[in-house]
Amino acid sequence: MPTLLDAIEIETGQSPSASVIWMHGLGADGGDFVPIVDELGLDAAPALRFVFPHAPMRPVTINGGAVMRAWYDVFFGELEGTSRRADERGVRESQTQITALIDREGKRGVAASRIVLAGFSQGGAIALQTGLRHPDTLAGVMALSTYLPLAESLPQEAPAANKETPIFMAHGLYDPVVPLTMGAGSMTFLVGLGYSVEWHQYPMPHAVCPQEIGDIGAWLRKILNA
Fold it and tell me: To 10 degrees, the CA torsion angle through 57, 104, 21, 26?
């Protein structure tokens, strides 16, 4: 059993009946998306527990080997499509750590079917990696400004449990970090496998914008009130 990641937790009401596990991007930490909770308009949603885990510290190749919070290493050319090298070990280690957080929510009385995995950039990649391979049906997967890692192994590794799980993907038209083509290409790949993806794109860089926050809130209300 992996050591549980440290995390910031916010509950929107008493005795939460649903949880959102939300992963930050490269070099950030669990506090990055905490301010967004109050902007999501979730008053009409059931009481939620937001879990914002901190990624482990590790050296990151594209940042000159500097040590920072990262869900996996990123190699030169990987995000430009000029290299197919990927840190499979790091991706799978993070998948195991997020799965442990899902299991903990279960022990706290929140069933997998009431858990949303969410993430931005690297965190979104881990949300897709973990959510689509999870053996129990989840409430939804939200992947912002990101792409599907280890895509070639997904058809063999994905259980039927999450084949119909709602997926929310969003990307900036002017993203200089994770190109729009990577996010859109991942969306097209998933749709081709039969997944249901709600796709949004916004006139922004590698960021989150107010319209997107509104759309995220509407999506969360829809899937958690269903």
Answer: 10
Encode pLDDT of 47-101 as tens digits.
999 999 999 999 999 999 999 999 999 998 777 776 677 899 999 999 999 999 9
CATH number at residue 34: 3.40.50.1820
Number of domains in the chain: 1
Distance CA 100, CA 114 (A): 16
| Residue 216 falls inside a structural domain | yes
Q: Is the pTM above the cut of 0.90?
A: yes
Name the phi and psi angles at 215, rounded to 5: -70, -35
Catalytically active residues, by annotation? 121, 175, 206
Residue 55 belongs to some domain of the structure:
yes
Structural domain contains residue 173: yes
